[in-house]
Each structure stands twice: as structure tokens, then as C-alpha cells.
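Inputs:
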Amino acid sequence: MAEVHVLGQIQGARHFERNSLFCRWELRTGVGWKVVTGLTEGQTQSDTPSCGNSCVWAHPIDLHLHTKGLQDWPKLLFEVHQVDKYGRSVLAGYGFCNIPSTPGLHNLVIPTWRPRGSPRDRFRQFFLGGSTQLSEPELVCSSEDRYQLSTESTGTVLVQLALVTTLLLLLGALSAGQNATEVDDEIVTNATAAYYEDESALNETLLETSTAADNEEVATTAANASTA
Amino acid sequence: MSKDVSPNNFGRSSAEGASSRQFFVVSISGSVEAAEFPEHDELYCRYFVEFGSDWQIISGVAEGMSQISKKSKCHIDDRQLCVWNLPVELTLKSTNITGWPKIVVSVYGNDSFGNDVVRGYAWSFVPLESTATTLSMPAFVPASSSKLQEMTAWFTGRRPEFLNPAIVVHGESREREQILFIFCPPMF
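Outputs:
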């Protein structure tokens, strides 16, 4: 019922060792989020700066997401690769960021890291090139234990996102009233109709969904949501 | 560039039956001010505004071409800008935020043999806030795919360029492009 529009671009990268870089990106959403339009993954062009040290990709991110709950907020995953002079691609870093939750323009700076191999691997990489990669890239954005992993820090990815949200505050108010993280369809339909037509009906709908103990809190949230 | 968005001015175009589509109006007014290309001079630009299928132009034009501008000869001016000040005036109407307008600027100039070649492409989403904003867009240009092609392109003036500059705002199939990034941006 709440919609989030993400409009932006993966601007580029800086502070990497070598400067011919490209990036693979992916959107990870949880259960309950639906992508209405837009590409959820892609690969940027590979860019070599002619002056300065920053790569420019200017890769568009244009997404329209729809959700009925507030958990599992979407994330963007990045895998930056270097192109060496023989045309091989070598992993330069992994990074991820959460999509912002407030409307407006956001300039995100995402630091990246890559796994260090064993000393033998590093010796081999020095002469032959190549890099150590994760066998499960999901580790980058999951909260599992990583203490066995040894990594080195690499450069940063620059992303600029503008966010437009619709009915997100209302979703929060309804979730609070129900003491649940996902909201019933019927309540959603009634509330959305009320939002567009009649504000007093909206307040009634919100009050109906609250328990006796939470009445005051929901009423305040509802009042804030309708004036926002 | 200042932009006026009035999300509260929902118009209702009434149709027969129960459904009414709400639309909103976005009015863009600004200018493509200047470009900073350290290695090149005598540049002109073309811009166009790309938007989705739910959007319609109410007034204004979605594209334009500037004059050819040379950098300042003043020795105390170290900004080294090619100034165009090309106005952008456009009003759009839509029912859907998807397809929010993007402005694409392509910069061209003459090479040493007098051929018209592309110097850079840059794009940005039209800002969402209604306050005056200056956008800095870094530019890039396609690189030749081999040394031989690079040399031939230098002689004949047929450098790699995009058939349709709108490709820079599409996310599909960009992995085949090898890009040489020319650092500094046209300012908008």
C-alpha cells in the first residue's frame, strides 16, 4: 500500500587502486515488497578517467516499489570490478547500502572491501593477477557471522538517490495500531480511500484498528500522518 | 535552476463512470550554464529531456541546441569554462511518478582537422525539490574498442558516438560500453 519511488544514479567510484572500473549492482528486497517497474540489477559501463581519479558511470536507478509492511527494507548491493590491461576483470570490492527511508535527495558514499586470501594466494596474485572472491555474495548484506573472514578495504562508490514516498507515514500508523508488521488488505483499502477522500473518515479508520491500550498513541500518530 | 512542483494541486480529470485520474504538474525552468572540459575548447551542446510514457508536455520544448562557445582569454580567470546559458523551459503533466524527467546533455566540438566530434555525454534526473539547484554532471565519452580504431578515428574524425544519446539514461546493456571519462561537468 505504501509506495517508494527511487530515482537516482550510480555516479561513480574513487580511491580504487586502478582506475578502469565497472560495477555490478543488484536490489535485494524482502518478502512483502514488490517491484512495480524498473530494473533490479545491472552492470555499468567500464570507465577510465582521462583526468582526475574518479570513475564516472552515471548508471540510472529508476525503481517503483510497493510494500504492505515495514520490515526487510530494500538494499542495494555493489560489486566493483577492475579491468586490467589484458581485458580481464578482477574483483575490486563489495559494498552495500540501505535505500534511504526519508523522501528527498541523498548522496550516499559506500565504502567497499574485498576478501584477502591466504599468503600463498596473495603471492600468486602478485605475479598472475586475479583476486579472491566470496563463494556466497549474499554474505555482503546479511547479518551472519563473518569473523572467519579477513578482508582489506578498497575504494568508495558514490550513489545519488532521490526518494519519493507515498502513504509511508500512514502505513506506519496502521502498523502501530494493529501491533503487527503487515497490515490487512481490507484495512488498507479503507484507509487509502479515506486518505484521498475524507480526512475525518481516515481518523475513524485508524482508531478502529487500535487496541484499547494504544488508543492515545495511535490517535496522535494518525493526527501527525494526516497533517504531514 | 529552479523548479516548481505542486504536489498538492491535484487536478481531477473527470471521466464517465466512477474513476477519476489525479494528475500533477511539474514545471521546469533553468539553463544549461557552462561546461568545464580541461582538454577541449570551442564546444556546443545539445540537450533533451527524456520522460516516461505517462508524461505529456503541456508547454515548452523538450530539446535545444546551444551556440559554440570558446573559453575566456582573460588570464586571471582560471575557471576555464565554456559558457552557454542555454534556457530550458518545460512544463509536464503526469499521473505517475515513474518516468520522472531526466535531462541529457551531449557536448560536441571540432577536432584539429575541423570535424565535428562528440566530447561528452552527461545526464541527471531533474531535481525533485522546488528550490533553485545547480547540478554538476560529470561527462563521459565512448572509447574506441582497439588501438587501431582509435588511430583511424583520430585521422578521419569518425569517433565512436552513441546512435541515440538516450541510451545513457537506460540501464540495460551498458556492460558492452567502454567509456573514457572526461572529468569535468557541464553545470546546469
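Remarks. The interface with chain B takes residues 5, 7-9, 11-12, 22, 36-39, 42-52, 54-56, 58-62, 64, 104-105, 162, 164 of chain A (CB under 8 Å). The CA atoms of residues 114 and 152 of chain A lie 6 Å apart.
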